[in-house]
Write a structure and sequence with these properties.
By secondary structure, this protein is an alpha/beta fold. The chain has a single domain, classed as Glycerol-3-phosphate (1)-acyltransferase (3-Layer(aba) Sandwich). Helices cover 42% and strands 13% of the residues. The protein contains eleven helices and nine strands. The strands form two sheets. It has a seven-stranded mixed beta sheet, sandwiched between helices. A two-stranded antiparallel sheet has the order 7-8. The termini are far apart. The N terminus is likely disordered.
Length: 270
């Protein structure tokens, strides 16, 4: 009993360290709604695979130089109109370099994102929250345009957390986001100046100055796949091979991407 109480207290303290500023989120919704409904016209498929309650992990591809796909994912999960699916707040894990940019980190945290640390993810999953991991990390958003939709190696964190907490993993894929912000180069020197791994170079930035930061109005699709219960898969029952589990997740996300790429009619018109 004492051990369970201590673990619960730790989980409470860790997750309470990252409260959500609901007033800030409410002020952001009109902009996010415009981007979601009008600018990128995001279509959502498979929302029924997201559990209605309880701990779960979402794993998907990341792209775009500026990670606006994370904001669209969070908006979709909390504001969709499907009456048969849950509305849930996504606790998105962001890369640790963000903490080197205090103003950005503050906005991320107030919006519900949390630093990518095992202790934080442990606490949130223990409380039954929905955790989002982009397992490509910085490698995902650093992809050049000619590498679009080519998944980078996945970190094993999602598999490890799923195994530990016995929670499902829901793969997801964004198609369209990689064309919204075509990265044709990276400047590591400029990145050092702002505390980031790099500053993306696009056909319009820095050539057009601040206007060049605006993403293109491509048509987006967000697709969720079936839940994956790694502990229930026979090959992992006796051998928790996290490398193999991670490749299993990477293939699942890759198949979702390929399915949506083969069915879309146009980059900008769906």
């Amino acid at each position: 009993m004492g051990g369970e109480s201590s673990a619960t207290s730790f989980a409470q303290a860790a997750s309470d360290a990252y409260p959500i500023d609901r007033e800030l989120r409410a002020r952001a919704w009109p902009l996010l709604r415009f981007l979601f409904d009008t600018y990128w016209r995001v279509s959502v498929r498979g929302m029924e695979h997201v559990p209605r309650s309880g701990g779960a992990i979402l794993v998907g591809n990341h792209s775009g130089g500026i990670p606006v796909d994370a904001a669209m994912l969070g908006y979709a999960l909390e504001n969709h109109e499907d009456p048969t699916s849950p509305r849930r707040i996504a606790r998105i894990l962001y890369d640790r370099f963000i903490d080197g940019m205090p103003a950005v980190a503050d906005i991320y945290r107030r919006g519900g994102a949390v630093p990518a640390r095992y202790a934080v993810a442990d606490a949130l999953l223990a409380r039954g929250e929905l955790v989002v991991i982009f397992p490509e990390g910085v490698g995902g958003i650093a992809k050049l345009f000619d590498q679009r939709y080519q998944l980078q190696p996945f970190a094993t964190s999602a598999a490890r957390l799923s195994w530990k907490h016995r929670v499902p993993i829901i793969p997801f894929a964004f198609v369209g986001a990689e064309e919204a912000y075509p990265v044709i180069g990276r400047s590591e020197a400029a990145g050092v100046a702002v505390g980031a791994p790099y500053v993306p170079i696009t056909p319009f930035f820095p050539l057009l100055g601040p206007l060049g930061v605006l993403p293109l109005p491509s048509k987006w699709t967000l697709a969720f796949g079936r839940r994956i219960y790694l502990r229930r898969e026979q090959r992992f029952v006796r051998d928790p091979d996290f490398g193999a589990m991670t490749e299993r997740l990477r293939r699942s996300v890759g198949l979702l991407i390929q399915r949506e790429l083969t069915t879309r009619r146009s980059v900008f018109f769906g």
